[in-house]
Amino acid sequence: MLLRFLLTCCACVYAATAGKHDAYRSYSVHTIQVRNADDLQLIQDLQFDLDLDIWQYGMAGQRDAEVMVSPEKAREFLSALDENGLTHSILIADVAKSLEDHEDDIAAYRSSRKNRMIFSDYPRYAEVDSYMERMASTYPNLVTLVNAGPSFEGRAIKYLKISTTNFTDASKPIYFMDAMMHAREWVTTPVALYSIHRLLENRRPEDQDLLDDIDWIILPIVNPDGYEFSQTDNRLWRKTRSVNLNVSTECIGVDANRNFDIEFNTTGVFTNPCSNLFPGPYAFSEVETQYVRDILLEYLPRIQLYNDIHSHGNYVLFCYANKTLPPNAAHIHHIGAAMGAIMDSMKLPQARFYLVGNSGLVLYPTSGSADDYAQVVGVPFSYTMELPGYGYEFMVPPSYMDHMVKETWEGIAVSARLARIHYRRRFN
Ligand SMILES: *[C@@H]1O[C@H](CO)[C@@H](O)[C@H](O)[C@H]1NC(C)=O
Ligand SMILES: *[C@@H]1O[C@H](CO)[C@@H](O)[C@H](O)[C@H]1NC(C)=O
Ligand SMILES: *[C@@H]1O[C@H](CO)[C@@H](O)[C@H](O)[C@H]1NC(C)=O
Ligand SMILES: *[C@@H]1O[C@H](CO)[C@@H](O)[C@H](O)[C@H]1NC(C)=O
């Protein structure tokens, strides 16, 4: 408690005496053309020693890597790239400036709009909470609001259950989506909120089947502490905000998407608690990941599809992160490809095409991820979506959100319908 008080206090003093984004002054982000697996390995090998923050991993011939580096380590980093013959260029010269521009974008967008829709902006935790409360009271016959429990810092982590039969009809599959497991991935919560909006407030006749034939569990903010901290203090915060003095007196938080009990602490993680990829002292050390686990286990075997929404990069990823495939990989790929295809058909010119595939192969091998955990415990279709960054990556201007939420909803809708067909085949 004392530590938490001290940390909060330091944060206040800091905010009052310095520019909010000064911690990132002269940090730069570099685009790197990766030619092969050795290039990818080199970047990974430099990651810890040079304190790199990998914004995008890259894929030979498909995607460039994007890496943030501090001003102190930039020279060493760029020399290492040059020595190995890698082509690179500057994407962001000063991350602090870019974060300031991002805040200006948000302010300008807000003042230009009379009717602010919660899903076309970046709502704070309290706004999301009151939206969910409002949906529950406006649609009492369709919606049950559940409080899973408090986050580490005590914020209620809530989700909506949406159903025409109050989850009592076992012939219906359940679609479980969650968002904002990683704090800086701000575009993810609006996508979850827009899904709620389309199922309840703005349901269209052609989508009635999605409500009638499927039960929905929607958890818009898995990591509210991290999200609020990214709003108030550090825009690029990724982890939870848990303090564990046995682990570290210096650094706090755990990468929630490495904290699940599946091949825990094996690949794609760092043992140092200060790392952005610290998996935690043990699997499910974080209450936030425990709640996701508990939902998965409570509603098995009816959860037919789990969609863990992240950003950025335009990927639909499936299991397992160790590059092996589950037995129903052909069906998993079929649904993932259908999602990617419909979202691509609506894509903005600034967006990449969706890459659909095994997470270990098209992204990078990891362990302890939510999608792998869901697949292993028995969810037949488990995905991680990486939404578009449009070249702004984590700092997408809100003017893109109207489009992004609609495009992504189409992907969600198609995956829900296909997953339902497979569910009927399995059970009827
Ligand atoms: C569904 O049933 C539960 C348990 O009986 C109840 O608490 C909840 O209010 C119901 N929700 C709706 C939407 O009817
Ligand atoms: C820290 O370690 C002590 C002694 O092993 C243990 O009793 C305590 O539960 C640990 N605290 C946490 C937060 O893990
Ligand atoms: C994670 O693995 C590393 C390397 O094997 C080991 O040193 C470390 O103690 C492990 N951490 C935990 C929390 O198990
Ligand atoms: C990859 O992970 C899955 C799920 O944990 C496991 O069943 C499989 O044996 C693993 N494959 C290898 C090669 O480790």
TrEMBL record:
Transmembrane segments: none annotated. The keyword Zinc applies. GO terms for molecular function: metallocarboxypeptidase activity; zinc ion binding. Keywords: Carboxypeptidase, Disulfide bond, Hydrolase, Metal-binding, Metalloprotease, Protease, Signal, Zinc. Residues 121-419 form the Peptidase M14 domain. The keyword Transmembrane helix does not apply. Residues 1-18 form the signal peptide. GO terms for biological process: proteolysis. It comes from the Eukaryota. The active site is at 386 (proton donor/acceptor). Belongs to the peptidase M14 family. This is Peptidase M14 domain-containing protein.
